[in-house]
Design a protein that fits this description.
CATH class: Mainly Beta
Helix content: under 10%
Strand content: 35-45%
Shape: elongated
Order of helices and strands: EEEEEE
Number of helices: 0
Radius of gyration: 15 Å
Strand order of the largest sheet: 4-5-1-2-3-6
CATH topology: 10 Kd Chaperonin, Protein Cpn10, Chain O
Number of strands: 6
Structural class: mainly beta
CATH architecture: Roll
Largest sheet: 6 strands, antiparallel
Amino acid sequence: MSVKPLEDRVLVKPAAEETKTASGIYLPETAKEKPARGQIIATGPGRRLENGKRAELSVKVGDTVVFGKYAGTEVEIKGTKHLIMRESELLGIIG
């Protein structure tokens, strides 16, 4: 199954959750924070403007991005959790 986002939406694969703190303490499943960064897997064609043209997205497949803690809608694709969100929910590009 493949997913192609619509309009100005992007498909993001969240980064793996940290299982150990910087000081070496292992975190239980309930204490882990939801990751706020991930990699763009697919992008939509862009939002349609009033003149009929499409606004180009500022991110591309492969970019590592930062997003809000509760941004997007979680979907499961081939047993892996992904997020679909609007480009406006992205906070920045890493790197």
